[in-house]
Amino acid sequence: MTITKPTELGAALAQLDGTGARPRAGGTDLTACLAAGVVEPAPVVDLTGVDDLRGVAWAGDGSARVGALTRVAELSTDPRLADAYPALAMTAAALATPQVRGTATVGGNLLQRNRCWYLRNPAFDCFQTGGDSCPARSGDHLYGVVVDQGPCAAPHPSSLAVALLAYGASVQVAGQRERDVPVAALYDGTDPTRDHVLDPREVLVAVELPVPSPGERASYLRATGRSRAEWPLVEAAVRLVCASDGAGPVVSASVAVGGVARTPLLLPGVAEALVDAVPGSAPDEGVDAALAELADLCDPLPATGYKVDLLSATVRAAVEQALGCAL
Ligand SMILES: Cc1cc2nc3c(=O)[nH]c(=O)nc-3n(C[C@H](O)[C@H](O)[C@H](O)COP(=O)(O)OP(=O)(O)OC[C@H]3O[C@@H](n4cnc5c(N)ncnc54)[C@H](O)[C@@H]3O)c2cc1C
Ligand code: SF4
Hints:
The chain has helices spanning 9-16, 30-36, 74-77, 79-84, 86-94, 98-103, 106-111, 135-138, 159-166, 268-274, 285-297, 306-323, and strands at 3-4, 22-24, 44-46, 56-58, 64-67, 170-174, 179-182, 203-208, 216-223, 234-242, 250-258, 265-266.
C-alpha cells in the first residue's frame, strides 16, 4: 500500500484527484475498512501533515471554526469549546473509548463508514459495495434503522454529526470546487451506495459552528447494548437556550437524534414543545405529546421495533437531564 503525507492542502487534493487514493486522518476507521474490503485497496493520502487542517479559530462574533484534524477528545477538553458548545463537548466525551477519542479526528468521525456487519464482511455484496441488494433487510438487522429512509438499513454512525446538527453547523469542503455543506445536507438517507455525500477526491477542511448562545443548557444521552466501546442504539443531543443565563424559561430549543435513521435527525416537534419549559421542572403535557408523536416517524424493520420506545425514552431522559429535573 502506498502512503503519501503531503504538507499542503493543494498537494493533498492533487494526490487524491484521479488516482483512486483515499484520505486518511486518525485512521481508526479507514484502516479497518481497507482490511475488511469495505473499500477497494487504494493508495492512502495521510492528511496529518497538513497543518492548515488543524486547530480552532475564534471569530470576532465568538463563533468557532474547528479544523478537520482536531481530535475528538479536544472538543471536550478544550475549555472554551466545551463552554461555548456544551452539547458537542458532552457528545465527544461519550463516544467510543479514550484511546479512540485521542486518535480520531472530527473530519474522520463525520465521514466514517456505517457499522453494518454485512458491509464489513467481505463474503457479502450490497448496495454499498457495488451490489444490487441489501442482505441486512432479509437477514440480521437488529441494530438497523427504525426510521426507514431508503434501501440501505444501516444507521448513520457519527455521534458528532448528531450534536453538530443540533447546532446547525456546516462543513467547509475543498476539492474541484470549494463549498460549504450544512451538516443536515452532508448525508443523504435515500442514497444506499454511500454514507455521506462527499466525493473521495474532496477533503473536509473544517467545521463551522454558530455564535454560541449564552444561557445554554445541554445534554447528550445514548442507549447502548454494552456500557462502553460501543456505538449507540439510539442517541440524543438536546440544547435549551434559557433566559436569565440558563435559570429562566426555555427561549429556544434544538433536539437531534442518531442511531435511528440513515442520517442524524432533528426533532422540531419536541424542540417547539420545549419552549417556555422551566429548568428544574418536569416537561409538561405538550412535551409528552410531542414525544408520543415520535412513534409516527418510525417505520420499523422486523427486528427494530424495540427502537420505537427506545427513541422516545432516550429523548425524554435527555430532555429531563438538560432541564435539570432528572430523578
Ligand atoms: C470501539 C469503538 C467504538 C466507537 N464508538 C463510536 C461512537 O459511539 N460514535 C461515533 O461517532 N464513533 C464511534 N467510533 C468510531 C470512531 O469515532 C471513528 O472511527 C473515528 O471518529 C474516525 O475518525 P478518524 O480520524 O480515525 O478517521 P479515518 O479512519 O482516518 O477516516 C474515516 C473516513 O473519513 C475519511 N476522511 C477522514 N478525514 C477526512 C477529511 N478531512 N476529508 C475527507 N475525508 C476524510 C477517510 O477517507 C475515511 O473514509 C467508535 C470506534 C471504535 C473503535
Ligand atoms: S445496503 Fe446498508 S444495511 Fe444493507 S447490507 Fe449494505 S450497508 Fe448493510
